[in-house]
Amino acid sequence: MSVKKILSWVAGMLAALYVGFLTFLFFAQTSIIYPGAKNRVDTSPPQASGLEVLVLSTSAGQVESLFLPSAVSNSGSQPVVIFGHGNGEVTDYWVSGLDGFRERGIGVLLVEYPGYGRSTGSPSERSIRTAMDAAYDRIAADPRVDRTRIFGFGQSLGGGAICLLAKDRSLRALILLSTFPSLDIFTAGYWAPSFLLRDHFDNLSTVAHFPGPVLAIHGRDDELIPWQQGRRLAAAAAHATFRLYKCGHGCWDPEHLPFWKDAEPFLIDAGLMQAVRAR
After folding, report:
1. Within a domain: 191
2. Does residue 202 sit in helix, strand or coil?
């Protein structure tokens, strides 16, 4: 066999292997993007003071959300933060993690994704968008809530969930923690073209058109989503503050990181928290 034929055969084999690899990625992408759907949870949500379970019937399935009202007595209706968790988590992990908002007079709504936790259905960009919209509509109709002071907070993929919500509903502000501009940035790491993605989560476009303030926080040591991507996301917003913390991708540690030092003035300026409550 000539060298030319050998090289042609090797090139053909490599091309077949590459196509096979791309085919695998295409069909496995749901498991790769949404690994937390495999997390097992108790049949009942965790116990927490004042916790209310909201079960929403949507086209994406029965979606569970957990509402934790403000721990501060409000003479009027309370502001609410709608939270989106990371792709490897479930809402149960965050029931006590956002108590700092409740202590500052802000209610917390944890929205579960379809196919995660006790929610039915399957996770996808479309189904998550449906779930977020339904959760917003439910909490905005609650007489205890000031619907003009609802804002979003998302961590990693949860930042994408919150940006989807911001496309459809009015949010006063956005807090994006360890969030990516879009999922397209990951395809290069797999040597794959971005058009193979079914879900893109174009957060960059959302923040570029978002009229309110944005607080973007990223970990300097984030190896999954480099901090430069977080800065790029913040740079696209008209009114953004970017903060870089000494941490990795799981950058939520408000007891040791300056989150509240940054978040309190941000929330006060956005009209979501009264200065008298600042610590």
Report:
1. yes
2. coil
Mapping DSSP to helix (H, G, I), strand (E, B) and coil, where does residue 216 land? strand
d(CA 187, CA 74): 47
Label the pairing between strands 78-84 and 107-111: parallel
Residue type, 74: N
Chunked mean pLDDT (size 10), the chain, 279 residues? 65 63 68 95 94 97 97 86 98 97 97 98 98 98 97 98 98 98 85 82 98 98 96 97 96 94 97 70
Hey, what are 222's tokens? 């984030």
Chain-centre distance of CA 82, in angstroms?
Answer: 10
Residue 56: strand, helix, or coil: strand
Q: Does residue 158 belong to any structural domain of this protein? A: yes
CB 199 within 8 A of CB 33: yes
Long-range contacts of the stretch 258-263 (C-beta < 8 A, 24+): 259/100, 259/217, 260/100, 262/215, 262/217, 263/175, 263/215
Does residue 29 sit within a domain?
Answer: no
3-state secondary structure of 215: strand
Domain tally, the chain = 1
CATH number at residue 180: 3.40.50.1820
What's the pTM?
Answer: 0.92
DSSP 221-258: T-SSS-HHHHHHHHHTSSSEEEEEESS-SS---TTTSS
CA 76 from centre of chain: 29
The answer to whether 65 and 137 have CB atoms below 8 angstroms apart is no
Cite the beta strand spans of 51-169 per DSSP E: 52-58, 61-68, 78-84, 107-111, 145-155
Residue 204 belongs to domain spanning: 34-277
Phi, psi dihedrals of residue 20, rounded to the nearest 5°? -65, -40
Token pair of 226 as six digits: 């480099």
